[in-house]
Model the fold of this input.
Amino acid sequence: MINIDIDTKMKFLHGFSHKTRILILESIKEEEKTVSQIVDDLNGNQSNISQHLSCLKGCGLIVGRQDGKYVYYRARNQLVRDLLTMFDVVLEDVQNDIASCKNHIE
Done:
């Protein structure tokens, strides 16, 4: 069994705890993109998106690749992409229970 420190696990899960970060992850799940492309996809602002990208990098979920003056962001690896897909599979199964949760955060 893998033994991961709970604080490390919480930092990792923090990457999934904001709507903008989830939208970014979905945007770059299948292909790498620049900040400008992500901003366009999300109709967001560059400063906000850049802050969330920094968080996602710090959580170990994404990586950036410098190419000239651009940085291209992508999901860290296939495991992260698989995890995003697994979230969808599990959520499809439990979505009615989530909808009735009185302690949800919007």
Q: What stands out?
A: Residues 6-99 form a domain with the Arc Repressor Mutant, subunit A fold (CATH 1.10.10.10). Strands lie at 33-34, 62-67, 70-75. The longest helix spans residues 78-99. The mean pLDDT is 92.
